[in-house]
Amino acid sequence: MSRKTRISRRTILRGLGATIALPCLEAMLPSSARAAANAAQAPRRLALFFVPNGMHMPDWRPAEEGPLADQLPPILAPLSAHKPQLTVLTHMTLDGGRAHGDGPGDHARCVASYLTGAHPKKTSGKDIRNGVSVDQVGASKVGHRTRFPSLELGTQPSSQGGRCDSGYSCVYTSNMSWRTATSPMTKETNPRAVFDRLFAANATADDRKAQSQRDRYRKSVLDFVAEDAEALSRKLGTADRRKLDEYLYAVRQIERRIDQSEKIRAGDTDIPVVPRPVGVPKDFSEHVKLMMDMMVLAFQTDSTRIITFMYTNAGDNRSYNNVGVNRGHHSLSHHGKDPGKLADISKINRFHTSLLVHFLDRMAAVKENGGHLLDHSVIQYGSGLGDGNRHNHDDLPILLIGRGGGTIRSGRHLIYPKETPLTNLYLAMLARMDAPTEKLADSTGPLEGLA
Questions:
Q1: Beta carbons within 8 Å of 230's beta carbon, 6+ residues apart
Q2: Which residues contact 96 (CB under 8 A, 6 or more apart)?
Q3: Is 63 in contact with 69 (CB distance < 8 Å)?
Q4: In a 3-state reduction of DSSP, which class is residue 148?
Q5: Could you give the CA distance from residue 146 to residue 305 in angstroms, rounded to a whole number?
């Protein structure tokens, strides 16, 4: 028997200082007569990824339009296992990222316009002005259905001021999500803080005391909800019990990875009783993967349906010694067509997509309503710059991932007319999120050809 007792979709596990939302279980679904119809009604998720400094386009773009070839281009090759879920879009353009008389500052504009399509006001003062981003348009329409209307994540902090790029405020270079034209959404960079938001929300005074106790003795959040979890498990059928066990195991493993990262960063070995460490891993790969794990948990528990993630802020100049690149990324992007620099840029680009595999693997592993999370999602990965040397905002590297609940025919390379607004894609995304919008910045209508 697959299930025994019907339970509410909003069922949570509670313990002192801990609240754990649950994944979608069979026991939460309607009767078997309606189960097939319900599969088509699984929540749609929207994830938007940004990578800095453009892309080495010859190693990004598939050679031909139409079905993706067996062998993907070098930068996309790490995603080969998910090729049926990929849609490469060519000739997407961000007109708002162009100078329009404002001179240099393409890195700042490429982030500020990436999700808004707007042309940001050139200022390093407090009089910032941009546009509303696609994620926040969606959150304003469907955010009330989840605990968090949206989540904004990254690996580097958001700035609230300062001068960063040729007269543009650092606010523009470090924020791609904007609630209003003057209100950017500050992103969270600490995986521990995201974990706590997901599993210790609405804490009472007693809850906060228990949270402090858990930090002091390094107890798992699952230890506090074990009794509730055991009681729930007795009500579930075999398939749901297995699904619940897998989910709780994943939560515990992520907790352990966060704790280990904190110990490494703080130099702890014996887990002494000390104030809570910052929680940000030293290793960039581990940092990105932990944040991606938080994204999957948030989607899996329907805590939110909209997430943005910035690999780094605009113009980031870190080196990537782990893939044999010891020169800064931003410096390399001004390659002047030097073959060695172009090869290094391609290595960095490929490394970034290899990290994305971690997210896609986790999404595909979470079964839901006759499919998995990846089937029910619309994911965008790309940059607001094309070639980092040209600083162009047309012919952008834009990858769409997921089937949007069966509304996207993926596994293809689609070539659109030059100057096709990227914001047209956003209208198509919002429609699939049950958040249709008539206009966003320079949009001319929902992008066609996806279905």
A1: none
A2: 109, 112, 113, 116, 117, 118, 119, 120, 131, 393, 441, 442
A3: yes
A4: coil
A5: 7
Residue pair 153/93 in contact (Cβ under 8 Å)? The answer is: no
Question: In this structure, what token pair is assigned to residue 48?
Answer: 């938007």
Query: ∠ CA(416), CA(422), CA(424), 5° rounding?
Result: 80
Question: How many beta carbons lie within 10 A of that of residue 216, not counting itself?
Answer: 12
Give the DSSP per-residue string, 298-366: HHHTTS-SEEEEESS-TT----BGGGTB-S-HHHHHS-TT-HHHHHHHHHHHHHHHHHHHHHHHHHHHS
Using one digit for the tens of pLDDT, what is the confidence trace for 387-435? 999 999 999 999 999 999 999 999 999 999 999 999 999 999 999 999 9
The residue-averaged pLDDT of 124-151 equals 95
State the burial class of residue 406 (Cβ atoms within 10 Å of its Cβ: 0-12, 13-18, 19+).
middle
d(C-alpha 143, C-alpha 141), whole Å? 6
Per-domain residue ranges for the chain?
1-21+201-279, 40-189+284-432
Q: Are 148 and 304 in contact (CB under 8 A)?
A: yes
Tell me which residue has tokens 């504009």: 109
How high is the pLDDT of residue 426?
98
Domain 40-189+284-432 in CATH 3.40.50? The answer is: no
Is the model's pTM score more than 0.70?
Answer: yes
